[in-house]
């Protein structure tokens, strides 16, 4: 039976991953995951695709996004209460983030890792980077990938192992066959006290080619996945899929070591 091997969140989108022992899956997802993000002086999103070195910086925040602490590679730690300035709207991969620019020392400290001036933005509400234009409800997406899938990708690449952190999935599983999670699409899975409806494959981007510790491009993940998996015949956009996405059907707590059980939809508790 598959079990939770690792949990990963990033309070600031694109920065290094935090690995809590447990998370609370709410109707808005994990409330302190991707609560903040970066934009340049033109209002465009800045993430690892544009600034790979961001992975070397780590952040923490609270459930309300009221304080923020960043740890830098040279040992500096910058923390304090969050002060909100002017409102901002940002296109994030066909989603609209609504938030406020954050005043304080963080943006200036990030600029050397980006190579240009940036602004730090806090979403007005948890899950705020996952709202599609014209919608008001947050898409509380949960991403999952199994050790079996990572092992198969390593075999296809001809390397000893592939670190799951490069896929930046919320939940990594152990004890599963290669791409076993693909078979859960259209089903519900119980994880800890939560239930997640698995809805679709997870389309991947060039961030997966980067070493999760250095940001350097070191593995040709995308072309390798495409070579041995191909495009889905029902996907006109020809996305390269690896792992799956779901939505929170029943809120609850998920911890490292929790078993994953595939359920019938009718079995979800009222």
Describe the structure.
The protein is mainly beta. The chain has two domains: 3-7 and 139-267, M1 Pyruvate Kinase, Domain 3 (Beta Barrel); 22-130, no CATH class. Helix content is 11%, strand content 35%. It contains three helices and 17 strands. The strands form four sheets. It has a seven-stranded mixed beta sheet with strand order 1-12-11-15-14-13-17. The protein has a five-stranded antiparallel beta sheet with strand order 4-3-10-9-8, with helices on one face. Strand 3 (36-40) and strand 4 form a beta hairpin. The two termini are 25 Å apart. The relative contact order is 0.19.
Short description, anyone?
The chain has three helices and 17 strands. With 270 residues, the chain is mainly beta. The chain folds into two domains: 3-7 and 139-267, M1 Pyruvate Kinase, Domain 3; 22-130, no CATH class.
Any chance you could write out the topology, listing elements then pairs?
Elements: E1 3-7, E2 22-25, E3 36-40, E4 45-46, E5 58-61, E6 67-71, E7 77-81, E8 83-91, E9 96-103, H1 106-114, E10 118-123, E11 141-146, H2 147-157, E12 171-174, E13 188-191, E14 194-203, H3 221-229, E15 241-250, E16 252-255, E17 260-263
Parallel strand pairs: 11-12
Antiparallel strand pairs: 1-12, 2-16, 3-4, 3-10, 5-6, 6-7, 8-9, 9-10, 11-15, 13-14, 13-17, 14-15
């Amino acid at each position: 039976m598959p079990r939770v091997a690792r949990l990963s969140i990033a309070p600031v989108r694109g920065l290094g991953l935090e690995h809590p022992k447990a998370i609370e899956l709410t109707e808005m997802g994990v409330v302190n995951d991707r609560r903040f993000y970066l934009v340049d002086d033109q209002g465009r999103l800045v993430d690892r695709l544009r600034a790979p070195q961001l992975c070397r910086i780590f952040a923490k925040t609270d459930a309300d996004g009221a304080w923020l602490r960043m740890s830098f590679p040279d040992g500096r730690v910058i923390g304090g209460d969050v002060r909100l300035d002017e409102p901002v709207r940002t296109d994030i991969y066909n989603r609209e983030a609504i938030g406020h620019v954050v005043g304080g020392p963080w943006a200036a400290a990030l600029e050397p890792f980006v190579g240009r001036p940036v602004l730090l933005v806090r979403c007005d509400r948890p899950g705020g980077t996952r709202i599609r234009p014209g919608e008001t409800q947050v898409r509380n997406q949960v991403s999952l990938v199994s050790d079996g899938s990572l092992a198969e990708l390593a075999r296809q690449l001809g390397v000893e192992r592939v670190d799951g952190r490069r896929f930046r999935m919320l939940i990594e599983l152990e004890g599963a066959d290669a791409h076993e999670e693909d078979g859960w699409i259209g089903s519900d899975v119980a994880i800890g006290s939560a239930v997640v409806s698995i809805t679709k494959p997870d389309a991947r981007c060039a961030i997966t080619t980067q070493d999760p510790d250095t940001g350097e491009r070191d593995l040709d993940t995308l072309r390798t996945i495409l070579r041995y998996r191909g495009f889905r015949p029902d996907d006109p956009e020809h996305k390269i899929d690896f792992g799956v996405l779901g939505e929170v059907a029943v809120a609850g707590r998920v911890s490292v070591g929790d078993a994953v059980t595939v359920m019938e939809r009718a079995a979800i508790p009222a």
